[in-house]
Amino acid sequence: MKMSRGKKFVILDGGMNHHLAASGNLGQTIKRNFPIAVATKWGRPDEESVEIVGPLCTPLDTLGRSVTLPCVEVGDLMAIFQSGAYARTASPLGFLSHSSPAEVMVRNSQARFIRKRGVSSDYVRDVQFACEPLIARQDG
Predict the structure, then answer these.
(1) Residue 34 resides in a domain
(2) How confident is the model over 52-102, as pLDDT tens digits?
(3) CATH of the domain at 89
(4) String of b and e for 34-60 (b: at least 16 CB within 10 Å)?
(5) Count of structural domains, the chain
(6) Known active-site residue 57
(7) Of 3, 57, 85, 130, which residue is the catalytic one?
(8) ∠ Cα 51 98 125 (to 5°)
């Protein structure tokens, strides 16, 4: 969280690198907020207006402007609804080496993790350090 120019900014672990459509950077000409909720405070009354932003160093990494929510605290789980079925495939997941997000599927009011959150070692997991040439050299 941070305060700047009289506004409270809620900085999430994931931003436009996980929800490109929700940030308005997938061809939208008019930016609109997707439905956002504090999942760990479901059903509590709205108390404050906040800016919902991601961790990237760009003002484009904004997921919600002037969103009215229950009081948001560090550690709360945020839900961004209807940001698109293509969030994982259309977003720049590896931007600045940020880890990929966990994925949750809600079906019949049951939430289940369907993919674990990524870790930094994912970026080197499939790197091969062998010094073999790509094309066999032919002398002669």
Answers:
(1) yes
(2) 998 888 888 888 999 999 999 999 999 888 776 666 666 677 677 777 777
(3) 2.40.37.10
(4) bebbbeebeeeeeeeebbbbbbbeeee
(5) 1
(6) yes
(7) 57
(8) 160
